[in-house]
Amino acid sequence: MTGGLGVWLYAVTSSRDAGRELPDGLTGVAGEPVRTVVSDDLTAVVGSVPLEVFGEQPLRGHLEDLDWLETTARAHDAVVSALVRRGPAVPLRLATVFHDEDRLRESLAERRADFGSALALVSGRTEWGVKAYGDRAALTAAVTEARTAKAGGGTGAGAAYLARRRAQLSAQETIERDAAERAEQIHTRLVRHAAAGRRQALTDPAVSGRRDWMVLNGTYLVDDSSTEDFAETVSGLGVEFPGIRLELTGPWPPYSFAGTERDPP
């Protein structure tokens, strides 16, 4: 891929959704008009991009340029977001590029079952993110209270003080484990209110620019009819687990549940 035009893949939709049209004036990562390529019951939303910029070798260099990467990722996501607002679509990861339409059609044929399953999963559902941040002081206090109550205060002020002090020291020593246990409980509860859920890698503070202590980075595929229930569940868990602050983000295109993360030919 060193010259000419390649095919940048944004998302895959169902050809049965014949009434859906692309938004007027929608353009992609190279400022190109977005179009469709049909392969039996699948429709790929694509754009023609110059391979001298978006081919395999040039991309390796461009992806190291954070400004270029951010601009390109925003353009890619703008197309995907416009599509999912109009109906079910399986978003592709950034920089999925094919040499030509024939290669793209071959890939769609090979992955027909995967795309079909992914479209069925995301239909009528939206991705939401939940991040959990720990407050070490507040979490230590909460664990101390719980352990003191469980152990009993003993008889007399001295015994009660010693019991609380032992609980506090224990909480300080196990703070990382306690936070991880609470994060797992929160994730498990959220999955019960979603069609699917995944724990993602914790965000590196150097990348996010935040110094908060992240203990959970979860993504959840939620029925559109259950959005309010899911949001209320997040709020309730924030109250139930003192020392843990929950942050709900979204709605997002269902990148986490595309299920098609294979390299193009």
Topology:
Blueprint: E1 5-14, E2 35-39, E3 42-50, H1 51-54, H2 56-62, H3 66-84, E4 90-91, E5 97-98, H4 101-110, H5 112-122, E6 125-134, H6 136-151, H7 157-173, H8 175-192, E7 196-199, H9 205-208, E8 213-223, H10 227-240, E9 244-252
Antiparallel strand pairs: 1-3, 1-4, 1-5, 2-3, 6-8, 6-9, 7-8
Helix pairs in contact: 6-7
Notes on the protein architecture:
- This protein has 265 residues and is of the alpha+beta class.
- The chain has ten helices and nine strands.
- The chain has helices at 51-54, 56-62, 66-84, 101-110, 112-122, 136-151, 157-173, 175-192, 205-208, 227-240; strands spanning 5-14, 35-39, 42-50, 90-91, 97-98, 125-134, 196-199, 213-223, 244-252.
- Strands 1, 2, 3, 4 and 5 form a five-stranded antiparallel beta sheet that branches. A four-stranded antiparallel beta sheet has the order 7-8-6-9.
- Mean pLDDT is 85; it is low at 260-265.
